Amino acid sequence: LDESLPFVTEVGSLLNRAGANTCFVNVIIQMLWGIDSFREAFFEERVGHQCQAGPENCVFCAMAQVFESLNAQVQGHRSTPASAEILQQAVSVLNGRLEFGKKQDATEVHEVILNGLDQTLRDSSLSPGTESTFVRRVFNNAIQEHAHCETCGHTEKP
User: How confident is the model at residue 1 (pLDDT cuts 50, 70, 90)?
Assistant: First the structure.
């Protein structure tokens, strides 16, 4: 264990309303929040992000709203739990198969969130064609999805 690395002792609390099915999104938020390099880079990018779509339609804006609520809790400026429903809504807009309010696979939603953040940053980059976003730097890999059919053996690549 590297003692020089900061350790987040608080993550704040996330609302988990009965029937809202946000537990899978809450897990992803808690995991991403706990990665110092991700959280710090996210807040750095937040300053320059200018979006017209709004949090209901932009994964970056929705994540910012949730992260800002968690940050306010950790700093003692807010006592109510943060809601992940805005991020769940933005994910459903980004990927129509992931219906808002329905139970989803956390791994698939995690991938959609990272892809959405990465694409938003590349699209809004001041340097068109920039391939390196903080998402790629933090996770140090390209995000790709491959579908493989167990029946016929066909593999579909992006």
Answer: very low
